[in-house]
Amino acid sequence: MAELLSDGEIDTALAELPGWRRAGDSLVRTVESPSFPDAVELVGKVAEAAEAANHHPDIDIRWRKVTYTLSTHSAGGLTQLDLDLAAQIDALAG
Ligand SMILES: C[C@H](O)[C@H](O)[C@H]1CNC2=NC(N)=NC(=O)C2=N1
């Protein structure tokens, strides 16, 4: 099972993930797309990456703004799985 990251490890990682903020035991980023179809298309790509990693974000779609919330529920907080998925979402969001 993935191990929980320390506060220091999380802070260090967040320096490389500018769009993301920490909210308790989660990482959160809102991505604004040009249109609702673009936003949903991105959600589809994130869903594919998440399924491949067997690590799944909470996704809140509000018109063309989508908020992704990452946490490793099985570990009770943030792990490397969340950092990896955050980086993948950044790459897909462009
Ligand atoms: C059985 C399966 O591995 C688990 O349910 C996985 C699936 N996806 C998951 N996604 C996230 N974000 N956290 C988890 O703990 C988690 N657990």
UniProtKB/TrEMBL annotation:
GO terms for biological process: tetrahydrobiopterin biosynthetic process. GO terms for molecular function: 4-alpha-hydroxytetrahydrobiopterin dehydratase activity. It is an enzyme of class 4 (lyase). It catalyses: (4aS,6R)-4a-hydroxy-L-erythro-5,6,7,8-tetrahydrobiopterin = (6R)-L-erythro-6,7-dihydrobiopterin + H2O. Gene3D superfamilies: Transcriptional coactivator/pterin dehydratase. Keywords: Lyase. It comes from the Bacteria. It holds the Pfam family Pterin_4a. Its EC number is 4.2.1.96. HAMAP family: Pterin_4_alpha (MF_00434). PANTHER family: PTERIN-4-ALPHA-CARBINOLAMINE DEHYDRATASE. Belongs to the pterin-4-alpha-carbinolamine dehydratase family. This is Putative pterin-4-alpha-carbinolamine dehydratase. It comes from Rhodococcus wratislaviensis NBRC 100605.
